[in-house]
């Protein structure tokens, strides 16, 4: 979702900047602007003194300006924190028995889970994402794309009893909760002769 919001926001801001900047450049180079455009010619300013001071005496002007700026600041802070927040678990703390523990890269555990899940009967593709905190039990988000002949209950049972259990035991985790999303692979319909 965040990736989509980023792309839409960047696209809208980029489009606005290209349209406004391109129009100012075109008028500056001598193009004739339409009658409804903001400025009229090469030596015209975008905002005149009268336009800039038009609503200063009205009682609603400054509260509106402050409210709009506050909303922009809050949206900017939300966007910034969403960018800095990590979705993926970078490391998993593995209990080694000596009191120290070892760090296992989250990406390595994800790759192993993906390859083992993809090797299950009827599974075409697998994607695994580890979330949570490294000191507590991580959580796995698993997406399986099942082949047409796959039995979903069997694939889910083998994933939980074999793949996830083996990863949990080998990493020394007390538990490894998982959310599994199953999809079927798109395939062409069979022809009947």
Shape: elongated
Q: Uncertain segments of ≥5 residues (pLDDT<50)?
A: none
Q: Kindly estimate the percentage of residues that lie in beta strands according to DSSP.
A: 15-25%
What is the CA-CA span between the terminal residues?
Answer: 45 Å
Using the 3D structure, state the CATH architecture of the largest domain: 2-Layer Sandwich
CATH class of the largest domain, please? Alpha Beta
CATH superfamily of the largest domain: ANL, C-terminal domain
The biggest beta sheet reads: 3 strands, mixed
Instruction: Indicate the percent of residues in helices.
Output: 40-55%
Counted up, domains total: 3
Which structural class fits the helix and strand makeup?
alpha+beta
Number of strands: 5
Which strand order does the major sheet show? 3-4-5
Rounded radius of gyration (Å): 28 Å
How do the helices and strands follow one another from N- to C-terminus?
HHHEEHEEHE
Instruction: Tell me the CATH topology of the largest domain.
Output: GMP Synthetase, Chain A, domain 3
Could you characterize the architecture of this molecule?
A three-stranded mixed sheet has the order 3-4-5. A two-stranded antiparallel sheet has the order 1-2. It contains five helices and five strands. The mean pLDDT is 82. The protein has 193 residues and is α+β, with helices and mostly antiparallel strands. It has three domains: 1-54, no CATH class; 57-85; 91-184, ANL, C-terminal domain (GMP Synthetase, Chain A, domain 3), CATH 3.30.300.30. Helix 4 runs antiparallel to helix 5.
